[in-house]
Structure formats: C-alpha cells, structure tokens
Design a protein that fits this description.
The chain is an alpha+beta fold. The protein has 3 helices and 18 strands. It comes from Niastella yeongjuensis.
C-alpha cells in the first residue's frame, strides 16, 4: 500500500471528541470527558496504525512471494521442485527485524499458500516496537492477481503491551491497470493490561485514481472509502464513515478532498477536507450548531 490515511483520520478524533464532550449531554448516552476524549483518540490512532501495519505486511509478503521464487532470473528449484527462497523476502524483512522467522507452506510456487510470520516470545522490530506471537497469511492466489483474496489471522499477537485480535480479509479488485483493493476487519479486538480495550470492525476500499500509467509512485493519487466502528465496554461507541471518498496524493501529507462523518454515541460531527483536492493542512469541523476551521495533524 503506497498511501495510508488511517492514522491521520484517527488523530482527528481528538478534536472531534473534545468538541463533542463540550456539548450538552442528552442523558441517554455516556458522557465523554476531555481526558477520555484524548485517551480514546490516542488508542484509536494506535490501533488503526497496527491494523494498517498488518495489511502492509500481507501486501509486502505477497510481493515477495513472486521475488522469492526467482533465483538469478530463473524459477528457483530443489531438484525438480520449484521452491520459495525465504531469504529473498526483502520487502517483508525490512518491515520486521532480524529476529523474526518467516516460513512458507507449501514452499513452492503453487497456491493456495500460507506464510507465517513468527515473532516468538518477543522481538524488537525495526520500528522499535516489541512484538510477539504469529501473523498467519493465507494467500488463495498471488495477491497481485485481480480477484485474489488474502486472509490474515493473528495468533497470540501482541504489540508492546497491547493484545491485538481479529481477521483481516484483503481482496484485490484491480482492473485496467489501476490498483484497487478492499480490506475488511472482523472480530477485531484490542486490549491493554490496565483493563482498557475495545472491539473493532470495519471495511476500507482503496482505489488508485491517478498515476497508474507511470512507473513512479510520486504522481499516484488514491481514493479511500471508510466504514469503521469501535465499541468500548463503558458504553462509548465511535463510528467513522466517509460521506464522500477521501482523496490523498502520495506527494501530499494530508487528505485533500472528501468528507468524513464521525459519530460518538448519538453525536454527529463532520470533517470536510474540501472539494478542490488542493494540498494543504486545512479542514472544517462541523457539528449540529456550528463549525470551526482546523489544522490537520
């Protein structure tokens, strides 16, 4: 995945929740304090980031499967059996660290195929985070093939002290040379040792709308549609839905166009990124009785 906007969306929750907490409670919903608003936004951003990392791990492994079958320009073989060279999993290895074990079964060029990323009892990765457990990637077909499905399951998976669960299903919807894929999270759950945590469900569809005709990624532009729900045990529910697709260019740090709806229990807010796709850090936060200009993180 060349562009990720989930973390930026999650950080917007701090502003949205803070404004929402200042509004009058209707008595039928759980109030959200400023402290709780900040905690929720930070937890949401962290969880979104980790789930996105898992997606990128799967896409990197998919790209490496093709490379790993090639040795000096030929299909690598053991005798007459085509095999996968795990040492050629460069994209995946760069995202993980030297202490991770990667296996492929069957270790040949056929599909379906299962790639297991095993962090063991603990591995400090290149991003400085401590991970343990397994990420299991089940490829029904080469992920670059239109219609291919990748199912990712987590087995006793921890990032630092957070226990992360759930199943991710990535479906390649690409056509006519343009990248498009959907990502679905089911049974998502994040829990910390202090007892905090939430359930997480959602879908995202990412479509390349510019740059498909060139080899460089600098001119790529992506459209993302989002629909996610977080539920806390204390009664706070947060949903995020794209009213119109969120447009982000690889060359721009911010989402430049589109409208995001954020619902906190029964409170509804909107983040309007604009309609012109100009690259700037400004947006409009809108609620029932007002609006305010905001600077994007």
């Amino acid at each position: 995945m060349k562009c990720r906007i989930s973390a930026a969306i999650a950080m917007l929750l701090l502003m949205a929740l803070s404004i929402g907490s200042c509004k009058k409670d209707d008595g039928a919903q759980t109030p959200v304090s400023d402290t709780e608003a900040q905690t929720i936004s930070q937890e949401d951003a962290a969880a979104e980031g980790e789930y996105d990392d898992i997606t990128e791990m799967g896409l990197a492994a998919g790209a490496d499967l093709q490379t790993g079958a090639v040795d000096n320009g030929r299909i690598a073989t053991d005798g007459n059996t085509a095999r996968i060279r795990i040492d050629l999993f460069v994209n995946l290895a760069l995202k993980l660290g030297p202490c991770v074990t990667i296996t492929a079964e069957p270790n040949d060029t056929t599909f379906p195929k299962t790639v297991t990323v095993n962090y063991g009892d603990g591995c400090i990765c290149r991003d400085g985070k401590l991970r343990k457990g397994k990420v299991i990637l089940n490829f029904a077909a080469p992920i670059r093939k239109s219609g291919a499905v990748l199912t990712i399951t987590l087995q006793d998976y921890y990032v630092n002290r957070a226990h992360i669960e759930g199943v991710k299903t990535i479906t390649n919807l690409s056509a006519n040379g343009a990248v498009k894929y959907s990502v679905k999270i089911s049974g998502g759950k994040v829990a910390w040792p202090n007892g905090r945590g939430f359930t997480y469900e959602g879908t995202k569809t990412v479509t390349q709308i510019e740059g498909a005709a060139t080899a460089t990624c600098a001119d790529d532009v992506y459209s993302t549609e989002v629909n996610t729900t977080i539920k806390y045990a204390n009664g706070i529910n947060v949903t995020k839905n794209s009213e119109t697709p969120l447009i982000k260019a690889v060359a721009c740090h911010w989402i430049a166009k589109g409208k995001l709806k954020i619902t906190i229990n029964n409170r509804v807010l909107y983040v309007d990124f604009g309609t012109t796709a100009d690259c700037d850090d400004s947006a409009l936060l809108i609620w029932a009785n007002g609006q305010v200009g905001i600077t994007l993180p």
